[in-house]
## 1
Amino acid sequence: MKLQRHGTVAVAVLTASLALGACGAEKDTGAAVVGANVWKINCATGTLNAQGSSAQKNAMDEWRKNYQQQCPGSTINYEPTGSGAGVQAFISGTADFAGSDTALTSAQQPQANGRCGGNQAVNLPMVVGPIAVAYNLSGVDNLQLKPNTLAGIFSGDIEQWDDDAIKADNPGAALPSETIQSVHRSDESGTTGNFTGYLTAAAGSSWTFGQGQAWKAPGGTGSKGSDGVAQSVSSTDGSIGYMELSFAENAGLNMAKIQNGAGQFQELTPEAASKTIEGAQITGTGNDVTLNIDYATKAAGAYPIVLVTYEIVCSKGGPAGKTPLIKGFLDYTASGDGQGVLNGLGYAPLPGNVQSRVQSSVNNIS
Amino acid sequence: MVQPGGGWLPRRKGFGAERAFSTLTLVAGAMVLVIIVAITAFLIAKAIPALQADEANFITETDWFPNQEPPEFGIAAIAWGTLVTSLIALIVAVPIALGIALYLSHYAGRRVATTFGFLVDLLAAVPSVVFGLWGFIVFIRPVRTFSVWLNDYFGWLPFFDGTGPFGRSFLLGGLVLAIMVLPIITALSREVFMQTPTTDEEAALSLGATRWEMIRTAVLPYGRAGVIASIMLGLGRALGETIALALTLGFINEITVNIIQNGGNSIAANIANGFGEAGDIGRGALIASGLVLFGITLVVNAAARVIIYRRREFTESAA
């Protein structure tokens, strides 16, 4: 639509002023990609109301801020009500798109399609959130864990920090004879879903509680939200918990190195997390980009415990009059620029192969 | 029409306003009923589909997994947690609150009583999330130390048994609740105690009673109904408290009398925790648990009414 019409204008704008500043003046300048590396925000006006996953709240806040700054007349609201509530709101039509830690289930898909006037509602992976295994243990700052050991700790089979299994993973470390206090999420969450998914895939018979958004293993302590888990861990010596990277960073907690499928104890870095997503299988068809993460990835240098959160949108037949804004905004979030701003926020960028799929799906929204 | 004599009131004067006002009060009164009925209908309508989908026994099951396939959830553990935390709150708060109330009404000087009463009321104005955060970040430290001490010396009692970890427990939740219900019980009891007829008090004193004997023989019997009402109001607050417990409990769903081990959950806290990520069945399940809480508070309040009613007959005849 607008892409071709304004092609020449876009070039003119590009020469006049680099990159983003021009949007305000040339509101309709629609080129998605101008030149090889220079990104241009695709502006539209109106208001979007979205809600869902709290895991992507910080990313959304940054994107909303940037987009609204560049595109006067646009308002984008994102309420971190939780993935379940977000999907429900999308289905009932109160949210223009939803953020969700899981792709639509087979039960939700037809309902979501119904909301899109019978067209496909698609899952677009947008934010990669590495999950840190953070701990608070005086005298130990370089903890390494194998998947089986991690499963043992969180299922309650390993009770002491100087357990033989932990000693074997950490030759030479001075492990105290202290009780391990494991902390998990008390609320259902995608973080728990991906963490238990990882344990199911990587720890084999050591983890018998399956994958689920709700925590099922006995014992330990539940805390509300990743911030609650981070607070619990930082206030209790001898404790260990899983949380999104940014919360571990903000609380200044030590993070364990986790052994990946290649046998390396991998430190958690955004790049290492992206590597795991790179090996994910795209199971979505058409414009749907649902991912199946291979938590047991054998890729060298990959950090295996990651969370992917999706934006759920209508591929066609979305909320009347809002399609240009949805498209423009998601076009920005999937862009190199959009993904680039995530690094400082405790997220990891989408790997190139997934990113290009998401971009083409966004372009196909009509 | 002219009426003979002076026996008739003027007929129309102020009549319209009279009727309007009585209608207004009627509507206001009916509103309460309408709201209660609407809430009940809503709770029941939303709860039924979830209860039908439940594969476990809703009354006896302790786990809460309504969003899995098949859904399995039950009220037992969270209802237990609601009762235990509220009970701890009352056991701790009632004696302290009555002490404060008696001090303010019968011991403290006027200026001290006013300032102090103001401070207690201020406590009631603190948002519960602040109590929750304070409990979760600050208050947990002394409670954990206290729990370890209880475990060391009284570990032979089932309440204080266990190997740890301690802190995020029924005890912490109950104590935070105690602080939250304290101002309610204090403020109401103080009002009641201050209404004791001076003649009763003077009669007791003139018979040679000390101040404590006067309070025991005149003030406390007179105020008993009011005190019970204030405790029930406090209990209502404790039963329904959400976010403070969502932050301070340790979220292990089990029925235990152990109050110091990490764990515990309550109906309201479970709703706060579960709503965001709940699917269709999940929300229905949470609403069903809300219905149970609604029922519990109804019973508590009805019981309070009965007690007050009985006592009122007694105090009225005595007065």
## 2
Amino acid sequence: MLRLLRPPAPITPETPDEALVRRAQKGEHEAFKVLFERHVLSVRRFLRDLIRDTDAADDATQETFTRAHVQLPRLGDHDRFKPWVFGIARNVAFEVKRVRQHEPLEGEDDEVPAAVIPAPDPERLLLDRELEGQFASALAGLSEHRRAVLLLRLDHGLSYDDIAAAMGWTLPMVKNEIHRARLAMRASLLPHLGGPTP
Amino acid sequence: MSRCGKTHLLERAVLGEVPDEALREHAAHCPRCRHELAWLDTEVRLFRERAARDEVQHLWRGVAARTVAPARRPGLSRVLVGLAAGLLVVLGVGRVFVQAPASSSGRDASIMADSASLEALMTENAFTAADEDRCSRPGQGIGFHCGYVPASLLASR
């Protein structure tokens, strides 16, 4: 009885997503706001990388979290908020792309370079505007799905299993797409970072 | 890609998911893993530096406006406290309305009983002619000596 009468524990940076999800599901708006703050940077960057339009990505980010708020009561795996919200973001991004129809869903990188790509030269890894732009172009050059899985792995740190769940793919498909995406990225960055062949 | 089967492990090490010391030591002696590790380090660094430039403070306002904070549903503890408070109020009010009549009837019964005993006493101690005679005799000493209490006096108690 006393335990029931006790006020809820304060939310701290150490409060796990799982606890926040449970509290948000009970209607605690502050818990949902903390979930938003924790993941909005990644989700927005992911959407911007998929949609390639900052304003549209901002709208899509808000749409993603609005949908997450509506669908949150149905999230059974309380500790899987991150892959779950990325799955929503991925759907929103593809919907935006379909509506806009400015570019095809399948992209330009079907020709994956087969040759061994030389290692990057650390001396040339000085992040300047030029490299920043080249990196963005390399990402943009990937097909939509391939870009999505590479971002989910390297930028957002999702496990292969979580990516498979977010994308609705099989695990081998995820691994294959990430492998191909990585090869294509490296081929694009090579002129700016390339060093000697191993 | 590394051909010695460690690509996946190298990736996890670079992302901080597993300790990287042993793998980096291995890579120092394995050209293919060194090559893979160099690319992975580069990619992750590029992603991280890009992430550090993001700014998203303005986005919550839009989400908050579209996810209107629902009227806070009372938690179980609040419900229990509310129920307990309501029960106390009901019991308190009930006590006033239920016990007040009971107490007044009890008081009446007590008065009736007192009256009955008084009547019996008065009957039992009825002032007879003999008593009058006895009392009319001059007293000895000061005060009332006849040993009878007049009914008027009893009634005034």
## 3
Amino acid sequence: MTLNEFFNMGGYAFYVWTSYGIALAVLLINVILPLRQRKKLLGDINRAAKRARRNTT
Amino acid sequence: MFNNFFHKMASPKYFYGIAGSLIPWLAAGCALLFVAGLYYGLVKAPPDYQQGDSYRIMFIHVPAAWMSMFIYVVMAGAGAIGLIWHIKLAEVMAISSATIGAWFTFLALITGSIWGKPMWGTWWVWDARLTSELILLFLYLGVIALYNAIDDKRTAARAVAILALVGVINIPIIHYSVEWWNTLHQGPTVTKLDKPSIHLSMLIPLLLMAFAFKLYYAVVVLMRARCEVLERERHTVWVKELAETK
């Protein structure tokens, strides 16, 4: 099998690669979202704790 | 000893730590399975005698559809455990599963649609299998919307668990839809009591991809659950200390 044949997928290139592309996007999104959420949460919690300490002293 | 283990695991703080150290190993296993599955699925497996190369969409469509149902059952099960024994962590696992389940359902529907166009000549038909899978997506979205609509997270978790449990009825309907109704969608070739009616060269990549998806779910559900734990425990000392060291 040549590389050209591989990418051509027997004429179904559009359908096959669109499917795999969407799958890749979905898998990436679901890793990126919780990573970003965790970073944001830790930042928020840290800021809130600092603010609370400043207000008490 | 086992009691002690479960007691510890149910504590959000220990869960956060253990989940954090498990994630890299699960992710490594997942990556290996994906590489193997994609190699055997896209390169080694021969074209189908009827569908040509278009059938390779199966290697993501079928695992995604399996996961959409599997995650729903996990979500409802965890919801029930939270409902009965008031275990916070079960509530966390249930709601963390919902979003991922919704994404897998979306993936199963859209890849099915893209596969349907060249094979059936249409992107969509209102037949039993497709419609019941679409209802599954709405059930997931309902669970997420309901959870976000209620401010108190513990009340929200209870409401969501009940909704999820009622919706479980849809799971056998999806599975048997291709047998109970006349449908364009083909019947099961793997998940049946008989020998799988699929050649080994196609079954192996299918199973590799299915296990890859399963490990992927394990990774992302733990990532989401850790966020949910942080959010719920944000006023505890250990979370504040953790946030400061980051």
